[in-house]
UniProtKB/TrEMBL annotation:
PANTHER family: INOSINE-URIDINE PREFERRING NUCLEOSIDE HYDROLASE FAMILY PROTEIN, NUCLEOSIDE HYDROLASE 3-RELATED. It holds the Pfam family IU_nuc_hydro. This is Inosine/uridine-preferring nucleoside hydrolase domain-containing protein. Residues 1-23 form the signal peptide. Residues 35-334, 603-772 form the Inosine/uridine-preferring nucleoside hydrolase domain. Belongs to the IUNH family. InterPro entries: Inosine/uridine_hydrolase_dom (IPR001910), Ribo_hydro-like (IPR036452). The keyword Signal applies. It comes from Trifolium subterraneum.
Length: 789
């Protein structure tokens, strides 16, 4: 029902087909410049993309968009956002690439279809991997020249260039937003009249990593997030133009520009851009938005387009930025080189350095291991690590690059807009040519924001239940079941989302859509902490580690599938309630947004815990398949073992539905067959569609071997609601505890401890046939069925 119902999975290397096609000279008379944009889909990226889409297609043709899922966004949400934006602009012809399941061998061999979910140095054979940097947040010969715009981390482009050196000649030019060469950060400075107690933050740093400048004061985000990839791109031999923060720091979003933008709402794309910018301003963490939010990616796009508009423009003449050639490199590791301290996967433990790199060379030093790396951290000072620094150097390791040094002033000195690019940006967005076809309201003129809130005043409500879910496929199937149980048996009071498991926090929209479909817009949905216990950074709480959640694949069978509900999320009705950035001073925000009443809420007598595994033998193993050293834990316990330990040490009564019980009722053929025999309510049809998708994927692709894990998750809901004991459940009581020592090989494991364990009621068996029939019949019951399908 939303803008597009495309399956949110595509292959990254659309770049190959775009760059390796028809042999015509790109940019020559009569032929447009062909552009591929690699983006991390942040707010400023959307402004840049819409700027390009507004240009005359006879001069500038956007051929494709590849998504850098290694920085500010998650692949599943990003790809649908790009699809929607292109659909709004009437440009479904533009290819969109994301993901890829290939890997990199230990010797550095790059397999086909590597996804770009992880920094190159962390990329193994799967899409499971660490967040070392993210913690801070074309085939064929003789193809047409294509220009690449990189406005995110460089992973995708670097992998393409490293794996397809014969196609470099088809890349005419690369324009990059990022890095800091001679930059001096203008934010975090003490006022001139400040007292001696004022401690400057990033003031004067080369970099802009506001989350970790005490560890690294040199890097800019886009380069830092995969500095080895950035090195490969800049040293590729392809002509490079860099628009670093040296230049973008000189074009902040001013209050005058913001006001002028608010008055320039002539097109749907202008309205979308302004709303995106406004919510960023309204939710900014301090009162310095107008001095710390810059025209990053859209400014680079404007500079690049202006340069490309002029033939034979070797000196980069343009309307918007002053340019200068500089000799630079990208720092990927720290001196002294040639050491082995466990931080550098390119060399540590390798008989031959990965990618045949030079021993003792520039890549062989200490690599920053993450937030607050003790070898880099300087308390109340400037961090020592330089990973990601675009450093000006001389000598054989330098590359001559055209660099933007500062934004040009407005030629009209009487204007309130002090930069020339401000004028051009607003002019382009308001033009009627290449304008958006519609917004949501005009696309669906009969859509009404109706909420369904049932009246239960005359009913005796059953046991109050709060459902805590991590938004795996099985959790959504269990939610459908709980919503079908009569309210006289189960009174679902609220849902709490744990974004530390199988899905990103923004996937909460699927919950809202299911509740809307089932006529239960009255149920509040709260969001829990985005980091597992003890993983939040103690200095800057908005960032943190991924010690446990790194076990979830980014690709197939992991985040990209969960965030899109395996491509089925957009088959659900559209709820008026959405995940939102709206906020309120009543809840600690620095200011009210336009609609503080829409703020996303944050996140008992008895607790039913689905998960955990109590091993009875050496062969009775858990299901954390992505951490080979941990053989006996179950995912729900492993993803936040400290939290699980806290729950099991509390005074509440606990009923555990362990993995062994779930495995007894994990037959796709049986559950699908039973659903086929029941009444075809909308919830039956959707659940069957989802289950059939999981079953099919498991049969045809080994990356989906764990799909029955999600099927077993339905059991907890069915047991909870089985008041008549139709399941003939059998329980046993054991003293157990959860291991959470910080050792990944044992964290999340449940052991029986006669002395120190908590007595827990554990489900050991159910009647399997009764379970399948109870589940299917409840979904097929017309009572409490969907209000909208």
């Amino acid at each position: 029902m939303l803008l597009l119902q495309r399956l949110a999975v595509a292959v990254l290397f659309i770049t190959i087909s775009i760059i390796g096609t028809t042999a015509v000279i790109g940019g020559a008379e009569g032929n447009p410049h062909r552009i591929v944009v690699d983006t991390d889909v942040d707010t400023d990226d959307l402004l840049a993309l819409l700027y390009i889409l507004k240009l005359n297609t006879s001069q500038f043709q956007l051929e494709g968009v590849t998504i850098s899922a290694n920085s500010w966004t998650n692949a599943g949400h990003a790809v649908n956002q790009i699809y929607d934006l292109l659909y709004m602009m009437g440009r479904d012809d533009i290819a969109v690439g994301v993901g890829g399941e290939g890997g990199i061998l230990p010797n550095g061999t790059i397999l086909p279809n590597v996804g770009g979910y992880l920094p190159i140095i962390e990329q193994g054979l799967t899409t499971v991997g660490n967040c070392r940097y993210r913690q801070t947040i074309p085939q064929g010969l003789g193809g047409r020249p294509t220009t690449l715009f990189i406005i995110g981390a460089h992973t995708n482009v670097a992998i393409f260039l490293m794996n397809n050196p014969h196609l470099k000649k088809n890349v005419e030019h690369i324009y990059i937003m990022g890095g800091g060469v001679r930059s001096s950060n203008p934010t975090g400075c003490c006022p001139k009249n400040a007292s001696s107690s004022c401690v400057p933050g990033q003031c004067g740093n080369h970099g802009n990593m506001f989350t970790d400048y005490n560890t690294n004061s040199y890097a800019e985000f886009n380069i830092f997030l995969d500095s080895f990839a950035a090195y490969q791109v800049i040293h590729s031999g392809v002509p490079i133009t860099l628009v670093p923060i040296d230049a973008s720091n000189t074009i902040p979003i001013t209050e005058q520009f913001f006001d002028a933008f608010e008055k320039t709402q002539d097109t749907y794309e202008a309205q979308y851009c302004f709303k995106s910018l406004k919510i960023s301003r309204d939710t900014w963490f301090d009162d310095e938005f107008y001095t710390s939010y810059f025209m990053w990616d859209s400014f680079m796009t404007g500079v690049a387009i202006s340069i490309m508009s002029k033939p034979n423009n070797h000196n980069g003449e343009n309307e918007f930025a002053e340019m200068e050639y500089m000799n630079i490199t990208v720092i990927t590791s720290n001196k002294p080189y040639g050491i082995s301290d466990g931080s550098n996967p390119l060399f540590d433990g390798q008989k031959v350095p990965k990618f045949n790199l030079q021993k003792g060379g520039v890549h062989s030093g200490h690599m920053q291991t993450g937030l607050r790396d003790p070898l880099c951290f300087v308390k109340n000072g400037k961090g020592k690590c330089q990973d990601g620094y675009t450093k000006e150097i001389s000598g054989p390791d330098s590359v001559k690059v055209l660099v933007a040094t500062k934004a040009k002033p407005n030629r009209d000195v009487t204007s309130s807009l002090d930069r020339e690019y401000f004028i051009r940006f607003l002019h382009v967005l308001k033009q009627p040519q290449q304008t958006g076809k519609f917004n949501f309201t005009t696309q669906f003129p009969y859509y009404k924001e109706v909420t369904y809130k049932p009246d239960f005043h005359n009913k005796l409500l059953g046991k109050p239940v709060v459902f805590d879910m991590d938004m795996s496929a099985g959790d959504f199937l269990a939610l459908f079941y709980l919503l079908k149980v009569p309210v006289q048996v189960i009174d679902l009071k609220a849902i709490i989302v744990s974004p530390t498991g199988w899905a990103n926090a923004a996937t909460i929209d699927i919950i809202y859509d299911i509740l809307h479909m089932m006529g239960r817009d009255d149920i509040p949905v709260g969001r829990g902490d985005v980091f597992a216990t003890d993983q939040t950074d103690p200095i800057f709480s908005a960032v943190g580690g991924c010690k446990y959640v790194k076990a979830i694949p980014h690709g197939s069978g992991g985040y990209i599938d969960s965030d899109t509900l395996y491509g089925l999320a957009r088959n659900l009705p559209h709820s008026p309630r959405r995940y939102t950035g709206e906020n309120s001073v009543k809840f600690g925000a620095p200011r009210d947004t336009d609609h503080p009443e829409l703020r996303q809420p944050l996140a008992m007598e008895e607790v039913y815990v689905l998960g955990g595994h109590i091993s009875t033998s050496a062969d009775d193993k858990g299901n954390v398949f992505s951490v080979p050293s941990n053989q006996y834990a179950e995912f729900n316990m492993f993803l936040d073992p400290l939290a699980a330990k806290t729950v099991f040490e509390s005074d509440v009564n606990i009923t555990l539905i362990p993995l062994s019980a779930q495995r007894r009722v994990s037959s796709f053929a049986t559950v699908i067959g039973t659903l086929l025999k029941t009444r075809k309510t909308p919830e039956v049809l959707f659940s069957k569609h989802l289950l059939s998708t999981l079953d099919r994927l498991k049969q045809i692709n080994n990356r989906y071997h764990h799909m029955d894990t999600f099927l077993g998750e339905i059991l907890g809901a069915v047991v909870l609601a089985d008041k008549s004991l139709t399941l003939k459940p059998k329980f046993e009581v054991k003293p157990i505890k959860v291991l959470a020592s910080g050792d990944e090989s044992s964290d999340g494991k449940i052991v029986v401890d006669e002395k120190h364990g908590k007595l827990v009621r554990i489900l050991s068996n159910v009647d399997e046939n009764a379970y399948y029939n109870l589940y299917a019949n409840k979904l097929g019951d017309q009572y409490q069925s969907a209000k909208i399908a």
